[in-house]
Specification:
With 140 residues, the protein is of the alpha/beta class. The longest helix has 21 residues, at 57-77. Helix 1 (17-32) packs parallel to helix 4 (82-92). The protein is globular and about 40 Å long. The chain has seven helices and five strands. The chain has one domain (7-115): Hypothetical Protein Ychn, Chain: A (3-Layer(aba) Sandwich), CATH 3.40.1260.10. A five-stranded parallel β-sheet has the order 4-3-2-1-5. It starts with 6 loop residues before the first strand and ends with a strand.
């Protein structure tokens, strides 16, 4: 952990595209503002991150015609994929992504694949220790 920086923590649970979009954009914005940003992955958010399913087309299926229109607007406004943006910001070092040990087992994910997509797989006690003193904690 980086000393003296304000911490921004997201407990990411949902895997719907609109919430993934919010998780990623909030985390990368906080990191780019110099915050020590963390995404803790659980359940469907974990599964989407591990499978790198950040495609805006998923919004269409989840929300019908309205989702299709929103998906197109999102792509027009920012044609760079969430996956690309996330990768670039992670390279700067201010953003760490951790998977919950129990969630990896519950979602029946291959541990080696998960480890290739996140900074580490950690238990709840460690995640809560990292989150301690965070200026911002969100559950999405």
């Amino acid at each position: 952990m980086m000393e003296g920086k304000k911490k921004f923590v997201i407990f990411a649970h949902s895997g719907t595209y609109d919430k993934l979009y919010q998780i990623v954009t909030l985390a990368i914005t906080a990191a780019s503002m110099g915050r020590e940003a963390y995404i803790f992955l659980f359940f469907w958010a974990l599964k989407r991150f591990v499978n790198e399913e950040f495609d805006a087309a998923r919004l269409s299926a989840e929300f019908g015609e309205e989702g299709s229109r929103l998906s197109k607007r999102m792509q027009d406004i920012n044609p760079i994929s969430l996956k690309e943006i996330l990768h670039e910001v992670r390279m700067c070092g201010n953003l760490k992504i951790y998977a919950c040990t129990a969630a990896v087992k519950l979602m029946e994910l291959e541990e080696s694949v998960v480890k290739s997509r996140v900074d580490d797989i950690l238990g709840l006690t460690t995640l809560l220790e990292i989150a301690r003193g965070a200026e911002t904690q969100l559950f999405i």
